[in-house]
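To make this tangible, we now present a fold written out as tokens:
***
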Amino acid sequence: MKLYFDIDGVIVGRGRKPALHVVEFLKIATEKHDCYWAMTHCKGDATDDVTRYIKEILPEEAIEYCKLIKATEWSHKKTEIFDYKSDFLWFEDAPFDFEKEVLLQ
């Protein structure tokens, strides 16, 4: 299954602290699934940008799992990156209404 992740509100919780159980969550996700970033911090090959953003927040073990998540390319809607021919889950804390509409179609 393909998993798509936002960072804020999913991997990084409130107050710029690691989300609860983030290491265990990322370990299972990256070991068992095909994982991709779906966030504004990573449009295209911006893995270094992601690492810089999370390195002050997440424990080192979580950062290593984050490095296994693939970059994505999108322009207007995060929903552009989804592979609708495959099973997938999108971990997003605040999808826009126009993104929700795409998913409902």
About this structure: The chain has one domain: 2-104. The beta strands are 2-5, 34-37, 88-91.
